[in-house]
Amino acid sequence: MIRGYGDHAANERTFLAWVRTGIAVIAFGFVIEKFNLFLLTIANAVGDAAHRAQFEWLSRSLGRYEGLAFMFGGVAIVVLATTRFVRTTRLLDDPETHSASDVRAELILSAALMLLVTVYSIYLAFD
Count of alpha carbons within 13 Å of 34, Cβ hemisphere only? Predict the structure, then answer.
């Protein structure tokens, strides 16, 4: 039997939840990038200049980088979650008693995710 199995299982569940969140953010970044590419393709295929301008406006320069920001943000979430998981596992295996868990990693992960969502929401609201 593993000593402190419940604690290790909770640590792993938390890690997997953050990894799923990171993968979802990365996938959302891919969707944004592919949609932007789709809009550029439509804009090039449209013969009418007025409609072309509308499609080009929808895929403006910021649109080319927001998908990348989400992808890199998702990778950062996975990296921070992995470091938190390894650190917590080492603390659980250590026989000494430690003080309460440091919440900096969780705050950084949550703040990064909220920042990405907020920036993208503002960007979409002012179209």
Answer: 6
> CA 42 to CA 53: how far, in whole Å?
11
N-to-C CA span, the chain: 58
Q: Give the pair of three-digit tokens for residue 72.
A: 């890199």
Q: How many CA atoms lie within 13 A of 8 on its CB side?
A: 10
Domain spans of the chain?
A: 5-125
Both structure tokens of 76 = 């950062």
Q: How far apart are CA 95 and CA 14, in angstroms?
A: 22
pLDDT tens for 40-95 read: 777 677 777 766 666 666 666 656 678 888 899 899 889 989 998 998 888 888 87
Could you give the CA distance from residue 26 to residue 41 in angstroms, rounded to a whole number? 23
Rounded CA-CA distance 124/85 in Å is 34
Q: What is the pTM of this model?
A: 0.69
User: Which tens digits make up the pLDDT trace of 82-95?
Assistant: 998 998 888 888 87
